[in-house]
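The protein record filed below.
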Amino acid sequence: MKDTPGQNVTTTFPGALEGKCLRLEAAGSGLDRAMITIPARVKPGQPFGATVALLDANAMPLIAKKEHLTLSLAGVAQAEVSFPAGHSAVARLEGLTQPDSGYFRLQAEIDGRHFVSNPSLATDEERPLVLWGDPHIHTTVGDCHAARCRTRTLAYAAARYAYGLDFIAIADHVSWQPRGTAGKWKDNLALCELYDEPGTFSALYCYETSMRGGDGGDCNVYLRRSKYGAGGRVAGRWRGDHSRRVCRRERHCRWTSRMIESMELR
């Protein structure tokens, strides 16, 4: 059979649990944009993946009505995506390729509207690994802005399957009772282990705490190992790339803007 662009591209959709969570908690309405997320760096001729999501004006995935999207590279079709009706319009594609070196974007077309991915660099040079993620997410567990927060399951499902992130950290407050309890912390660690998939997606151990008296603002604490439970491992996406410097502390101060500084873990 003659090789054609996209011939070896495979398309997958979220599993039953994540898909149901997206439908129930994040049902978007009215297409605002198609978001295509690809790695920041790829090797020419080597396969890479892309996350595709049809989003509304609030960045919520649409409930699909058999929408059909075409992905192209330099005007040549790479893949066709048909979103199953009644499910969240999100998909994962594997097997895309960029044959030439240099910066590029994927193009997407749906119903006559055109969108592009984030830029990526195709190069054989060894460069630092670039990962995309959100280091500070609040959920209903911490009771911080509870009316606007969603569940942790949605946070993990949306980050990985809708937005194509490499890692997230759920940073619910532990300083103010009854927000922080041993039971909630153990439950949080268990979910980190459940959604962490080495080499694909990282769920970081994290909590947010307020400094005594409020003078130091709020600090996010990222842990390399779990204090409770049997897991005790570094979240998988970073494993092997940063043996020691895998933690960041995010500090919110009253008088200064947001600051992020690296921490050395021992």
